Predict the 3D structure of the following.
Amino acid sequence: MEIAKVEPMTTTRALRGPFDYRLPEPMVAAGVGVGSLLMVPFGGRRMLGVVVDVAAESELPPDRLAEPLEAIEAGATPELVRLGLWVAERYCSTPPRGLALVLPPGSGTGRRPKSMRPLTERTATVTAAGLEALRGEAGPRLGSRQRAVLELLESAGETSGPRIRELTGADSGVLATLAGRGLVERGSREVRRAPRIEPVGSPGAAPELSAAQRRCADRLIADLDCAGTRERLLHGVTGSGKTEVYLAAIEAALERGRTAILLVPEIGLTPQTLGRVSARLGDTVAVLHSGLSEGERFDEWRRLRDGAARVCVGPRSAVFAPVSDLGLIVVDEEHDASYKQEGDPRYDARAVARRRAAEAGAVYLAGSATPRPESWAELERLELPERVDGRPLPPVEILDMRAVPGAAGPLHPATREALAELGGGEGAKAIVMVNRRGFSPHLSCGSCGAAVSCPNCDVSLVLHRGNAVVGCHHCGHSEPVPRACAECGSVSIARHGAGTERIEQLVGELVAPARVFRLDADTTGSRGAHGRVLAAFERASGGVLVGTQMVAKGHDFPDVSLSVLIDADSTLRYPDFRAEERTFALVSQLAGRSGRGDRGGRVLVQTLAPDAAPIAAAARHDASGFLAGELERRREFGYPPFSSLLAVEMTGTAEPALIAAADCVAAALGPRLGGDAELLGPAPRFRRRGRFRRRVLIKSRDPDRVAAVVGRVIAEPEVVRSLTGVTVAVDVDPQ
Ligand code: ADP
Ligand code: ZN
Ligand code: ZN
């Protein structure tokens, strides 16, 4: 007897699988094993489940063992099952949630998604009798439409019903008649639901690699040829041609019969990379991301699993691509925060990629102009110190906003001048980044000082001029712009600060008649809108792109000669140990968008903190200097990579109950953590979406042990009782 140990795909946290099922002989013969997807009877329902192990016996008596109802032809590999279970454990989640990541899109609910069947279409082919009839040698006389169908099928071979109709006007009735007389044969074939890949920019053929690119590529190819895992950091300044190095390594992996995964930050923000890779490698590239329809995602997933596609490009979830014989995982722009998943399981795709590469004996390659301190310290480095075209990195000027009176507005005189000049220049383009959307980020009463804030969150409401409302960027609350102060009734309401809408307006006045394109969450809400804005900016003969962080990401426009960063220290004000690293990356990445063409480049950075280390280092293009200093600071405070962090986040609508629960969790954890772990908090965090929040932070050297302890403690009956009405989430490596 064979017993399958099955994890049912349930979202309930309380269930402890796996559960035993008896495999009937036909399923054993069909090769059901670890990774197979089954439909099983579970708690009176039909539910999808994954085989995580196969055993010869069960602890249950045979008559209490149920049999699976059906084996579904869409399972994962044993390697991926191990990876999914590892993610569940490492990130304090449940096995079904970890496994859902490695299964076909849509299986996480336990129900079988409709898309999980190949899409087929009806077709027709002409038979020998049909050909005879066509030549008038035998058989019935043909009507003109029937003749047209047979002629089409003779020349085109197997053709789909809709296509036949399109070309001849014959509907399924005509085909049925022809089939009834044996003149055509009906069939069906699978239709690939292929995602549309936006061509942005001009891909072209592979350029000859520069000497530095060649050295990096050769190193990686040598890595592919030696046994075991290699972990590398490709540190290349912006415009140094990192993508060509990735492509050379990916091609080398393919030549060796292996597969590759290329992770990119959100795909909507980096359509150029995908466009370039698929233009170069063709159909062997599959793409997996949430912008695809479920059917497209399933077909791409299956192409990867079946080996029809051997390279997967996608955002963080593509780290779970079902490829075999993995040779290489590349993480492009490895500093990007989008590699961390926000929902359960809160995995970090970079950590998962390293784990997967290590298990598969594959090469792990992280690439960035502004790597994370962790990667700088832990990975062996490959360097691309210069831009491919030999152009220098653009000079960066720091503009001290402390010297500019508030009444002068959010733009420094030097910024105004540079933009005004640009307006006159034919074809010149600029990028202006301001890290806030809306018109004014704060409103307050001119008489009593009361801020206009969100009723559900402890944040101020942002004025959006476009639709004349003030809105909350955390909970979506919005209301008409207040005419008077809610506290004292004064009608003098002052606006503070500038968001993208206000900068768009100011820039527009300076550069008219050149156009301004705005790129932020408000202008890119609809599908494909982001790409359309970028494409319009690319096509325009001049103009300015104004937007949030999105404007600093991954694209390559050769005619941008000016970059401006408004309020560069806004990210420094976050109470987060990664604030320095983020600020450095933002300033450097924005600077990197400038000066990629013949016009040269200029970068203006407006700030209230001109001496802050990340800003000063970015202005010198000094990543190694910044990272050395940053690692020193991290060592001193015991932050990653010198420790690992784990956060226990608790939220609730009643503050006293939440405080009591958080204290109880901290008290229960304290003695259990052991000597090398340090517990900080519980500390209050700002109220959000009507929920009060408390956070306990644990620093340690042994994240796996701490995750296991935390998982056990928050499941203990006393702790669970104290958590009534409180939601708990465990965040490993919080961002
Ligand atoms: P990075 O990702 O390092 O910022 P990209 O990979 O986007 O740089 O490359 C910048 C530009 O240089 C792209 O337009 C790319 O096509 C071009 N490029 C890259 N390598 C070469 C090369 N060896 N010769 C000529 N052009 C190159
Ligand atoms: Zn007031
Ligand atoms: Zn709110």
About this structure: The domain at 2-100 is CATH 3.40.1440.60 (GIY-YIG endonuclease). The chain has five domains: 2-100, 119-191, 211-384, 396-439+498-633, 644-732.
